[in-house]
Amino acid sequence: MSNKILNIGHRGAAGLAPENTLKSVQRALDYGVDWIEVDVYHIDGELLVIHDDRLERTTNGSGYVLEKSFTYLRSLDAGDGEQIPTLQEVLTLVDRRAGINIELKGPDTAEAVAALIHDARREGWQNSQFLVSSFNHHSLQHIKEIDPDIPRGVLLYALPLDYAAAASELTAFSVNMGMSFITKAFVEDAHKRQLKVFVYTVNEAEDFARMAALGVDGIFTDYPDRLQKFLRNSE
Ligand code: G3P
Ligand code: MG
Fold first, then answer.
1. Ligand 2 centroid to residue 152 C-alpha, Å
2. Sequence-separated (6 or more) residues with CB below 8 Å from residue 61
3. Which of 65, 100, 157, 201 should be mutated for ligand 1, with most atoms under 8 A from CB?
């Protein structure tokens, strides 16, 4: 990986199209993102791409995602007439044009995601085109046990006393840190541990500049168009 800051489309391009839909993923691709981040749940043996544990905010359905059937969830409108996509549909659309950061949001996702990555490898994807992340570090431990070669991203929001130590423990590729608590000391600690630092969710030009000054390696944004412009202007 070069020193260039990576443009990571958050939930596809959540600021430009309904989040976590194929339309949103396509918008991110339109701006040449390096990576696309999506959130996944495991429902009836299928991996579905949706962020919240409830349906009301992003769909015309209601109730808890985990209490619904795959068929019901697929019948919903996730915005602009888009279905809640399967993770496989996202891979098919991306078709190796960007890396995919799969955030394990729901329970029991690790095995299914590892299996999907194994299948994708048979179709020409590389391990390095995937990053599996989670706030649930036990799920990442599970991924590591299943296949230590799948790159892991340790999600943090607040600032731990021992900085990026959890990511070292999981021999992660990256630590994915919330913008609200990130500091120079945190970035330096992560870099000393040979970890990449990706920061979420950054949407304003002044914050792109602030994060770049901290030395982050990648930025999650709902507006990959804005980040593309910023990165081009700072070349
Ligand atoms: O992976 C970065 C970011 O997506 C983590 O928070 O709540 O947007 O999934 P959230
Ligand atoms: Mg996420």
1. 14
2. 55, 68, 72, 73, 76
3. 201
Pocket around ligand 1 at a 6 A CB cut-off: 10, 37, 39, 51, 103, 133, 155, 176, 200-201, 220
Helix (H, G, I), strand (E, B) or coil at 228: helix
Q: For residue range 149-184, what is the model confidence (pLDDT) as tens digits? A: 999 999 999 999 999 999 999 999 999 999 999 999
Give the atom of ligand 1 at the shortest distance from the alpha carbon of 37. Answer: 1
Spell out the domains of the chain, with CATH numbers in brackets.
6-234 (3.20.20.190)
Nearest partner of 89 among 133, 150, 40, judged by Cα: 40
Residues with Cβ within 8 Å of 108's Cβ and at least 6 positions away in sequence, in order, are: 42
Q: What is the pTM of this model?
A: 0.98
Could you report the per-residue pLDDT of 200-210, keeping only the tens digit for each? 999 999 999 99
Which ligand 1 atom is nearest residue 200's CA?
2
